């Protein structure tokens, strides 16, 4: 019996591994056959603008997802929290007879803001086009996909959300459909959750979780978001950093001044901001804000081991990104990502280039983001930055300065905090974590890259704190996808491989 | 004989002083009677967009000026240099029988770029509106001037060029017309020169001067540009600072990076720029670039005396501008303006505010202007800045970095220089300078403010070097005119007073 069982087990395992099906069609064969239809459907999805704050279009995305799910026989439900009129998360559920585990799959359908002028000339971020490769690397724009045309899996699809994170939504729904259509068995109960406010800090996810706690229970939520390791190897990530944004504004005169008539006399807010930012972080990237690196939870032995095994891609990355050195050449990327950061996302004062004029600006603004690791608290971290600004002689405001404040304080800084959240890390040794690892490994000849925490941020602490559920992230897109920026793109073969990865997890027992 | 002569002279002087005319109509009476027509005509002029680089509209301005001059019996001539197809300067000439001196009057009809989004809501910079006062000071927008409506001289006309420097053009032409229409005698031959490229550094004025050297000869060119002293008193300026602009760009990775995945590892160009700018100028406004304050020609005894007599408006200005202190509280404005400066006009890296996203920007740009005083050479001053950037470990480029340069140098800075020019200063004791001073003083009960050099810049060295002619500046507009910036405006009474000032100079002998 034992030997027969083992044989059966091995046979099933091989079926999964090589994608054998009752109909004799492997997942790869299925995907190859359906790739044109899958790409066309994905382009339709990407063509619905999805900037988180564009509520009208966001709701169109949610409605489109309901249709996609209905096509697959999944009854979609729009989950909201207690705040009225907010963007819904789209939920669905599949029960698998005999399954002992429930795995949730999460992705988000909203995207970052777009500034079309910054994208490749002539490209509308919401009218996806194919490119052979990024134009900076010698690629060219092929234009919109023509129905029925051959697809080179090395090409990329360019558009907002193409990688972050409609790719996740697309891969989850199509992995399920692929298993159904090729007649393969599911191993687990499946829950689907597609959020529409991730890029604005998942501001209502806590409400949704609290309100639908029972519905959202699972043995593990698998997050399909973020990029695979730079090596291109399949990747599991066990944690995320927290994140909080700060908008810092410093002030000069109330009105713009002629730089000839007042220069070298009236304070220049751009110079003030330069001094303030320079005081926050040295030229080697070390944050100089007092206590900034305190509170950090040390890494476990497994995490240290995993970090040491991550293939270093620093040299490749530097070449690819066109940089001579990292901020601190002694610190490899994998180590840098395990620390809290302070980063300037953007900076503006009056105008530059053709729009510049000989003025002293009235104010200078920097948008900062603080990434947080396990142990950091986002509010405490922000307080440290505020204390730093004060220590530089600034009176800190939360609103535009009044006349009285202007008359009283030599240095005025407005600090606005956007919603933030803390880091989350799942132990790598948990049984469910190991099962997922094995399932994913079965789809790849190369060994997986196991990352204790990604550099990016998702509000995964909510899964742990409210649902009491572990979380593991399986990123599927290419690392050089320009997520959050202009010319966001996904390499097409990563979509197909992502579908395979998710299908394997859906089949595990 | 002597006494009779003296009597005649005094009589004539009084005529000038009180604006008596053959028709018995004073200049003030004339202006009061004609103010509605003058304002309407000025609004028509301001409604022709005049951004220096907008060639199509710039030529419309030139054509409009030809018409204005023809209306006044002045034969206009479009002067160009040797470069083909460039913006012409509009020239005209009036010979006065018996006059021994020729005075040229210069103003410019082009303006700085506009970013309408930065102007008061709903205002088109080229559709002038009346305001009761700046909105920051509690003023309100009255809307477009309605033909025939009463005019409060304390109101302001808002629009690009309203102060800088269509006000100069308007006042010169209407001063001449006022003298003709009130039947008053001219004392000097008059030349008119209206330039269309001042705001882009008067890039062809040298060619125009060389080509039309004889035509443009005069005993003195009077420049009508810039603001009167903050005290509101009528002002003469004997010099200008030179100016040169630098656009400084520093680089990060070739593509925008997710701040979570690469933050604290990939170099952040916004931070690099902050450090670089902070290294150039300390927090008290002292420029730290090596040798920056060398080369400066010391002030003469007359200049020092004049500076000491300029009423200090520092306290008033600080209040009005909403600043607690100047950059260096020990240095009054009049002293600061006699030194070379380095000023940040604008700064930009990726986006801030609603457009911000969690990226590491690819580059950061600052537009700087260097103001120069007598003794400085603009090329030498720029070289000092370049040497400073190099001393901070930067490889300095004049174009975007190549792949090879990115691979070779840790720090890359592109430095682009815009056309610059040197300072100019006319000795205050010259006879022609004293005559103009007396004429202007005759129009004001308050004593004039005499300024050895204004803070702003005009390419006045060309008048001296090419034409061999002295230059004196008589600014006419209110100091708080927002020139070069959004919400540029002129206080209406300054237009009428400007016309009176210029008329007095046209009547001097």
From TrEMBL, chains A, B:
Signal peptide (UniProt feature, chain positions): 1-24
Can you cite a GO biological process for this protein?
proteolysis
**Record has Signal as a keyword:** yes
Read off the Pfam families from this record. Answer: M20_dimer, Peptidase_M20
Please list every transmembrane segment annotated in the UniProt record, as residue ranges: none
Domain Peptidase M20 dimerisation, first and last residues per copy: 239-393
Where do the coiled-coil regions begin and end?
none
Q: Which domain of life is it from?
A: Bacteria
Q: Which InterPro entries match?
A: Cyt/Met_Dipeptidase (IPR051458), Peptidase_M20 (IPR002933), Peptidase_M20_dimer (IPR011650)
Recall the GO molecular function terms of this protein's record: metal ion binding; peptidase activity
Q: Which UniProt keywords apply?
A: Hydrolase, Metal-binding, Protease, Signal
Q: Which PANTHER family match?
A: BETA-ALA-HIS DIPEPTIDASE, DI- AND TRIPEPTIDASE DUG2-RELATED
Question: What name appears for this protein in its UniProt entry?
Answer: Peptidase M20
Lineage of the source organism? Bacteria, Pseudomonadati, Bacteroidota, Cytophagia, Cytophagales
